[in-house]
Amino acid sequence: MVCLGNICRSPLAEGILRSKLPLSDFMVDSAGTANYHVGDKPDRRSIAVAKKYGLDISNLKGRQFSTKDFDNFDHIFVMDESNYINVMSLARDDQDKEKVKFILNEVYPNQNYSVPDPYYGGNSGFENVYKMLDEACSIIAEQLT
Ligand code: 4NP
């Protein structure tokens, strides 16, 4: 799960998908394309909305996406177009590129919709993001299991 800072959207996506998959069989992680928040906990508003729905993401730590992630993961879900461009620019070949998908294309195929960045908004943005990610992650989990 990839966003810009790895403190708002992608840690929520990580927590949600983790809750829907058998973790004995799957590795779920998140990263940011930027390095501003490496080592940081998720944004308190992401922690709060996750908690509201019974998920604890407070122990996650920000890290930056790297080329090695193409070796470690089969699927790379990005939140928006800028993440898509940044991740694709690190892809080494077609096999890497095929792993990269807009997460909302799971719900709205081929539309390339973005999960809006809630960082500069209020709590309602986080609620909205949670609902979008929950719907997408249900579909992803169903497809993978
Ligand atoms: P995220 O949100 O990409 O969903 O984690 C952001 C978090 C931090 C910043 C931007 C977006 N920032 O500019 O620090």
Task: Note down, in words, how this protein is organized.
With 145 residues, the protein is mainly alpha-helical. It has a single domain (2-144), classed as 3-Layer(aba) Sandwich (Rossmann fold), CATH 3.40.50. It is 43% helix and 7% strand. The chain has 6 helices and 4 strands, in the order E-H-E-H-H-E-H-H-E-H. A two-stranded parallel sheet has the order 1-2. The chain has a two-stranded parallel ribbon with strand order 3-4. It is globular. The two termini are 18 Å apart. The model has no long low-confidence stretch (mean pLDDT 97). The structure holds 4-nitrophenyl phosphate. 4-nitrophenyl phosphate is lined by residues 3-9, 32, 36, 117, 119.
Uncertain residue segments:
none
Helix content: 40-55%
| Average pLDDT for all residues | 97
Radius of gyration, Cα only, in angstroms? 14 Å
Could you outline the blueprint of secondary structure elements for this entry?
Blueprint lengths: L1 E2 L5 H12 L10 E2 L11 H9 L16 H4 L3 E3 L2 H10 L3 H5 L1 E3 L20 H22 L1
Parallel strand pairs: 1-2, 3-4
The site of 4-nitrophenyl phosphate has 11 residues, from loops.
Short structural summary:
The chain is mainly α and 145 residues long.
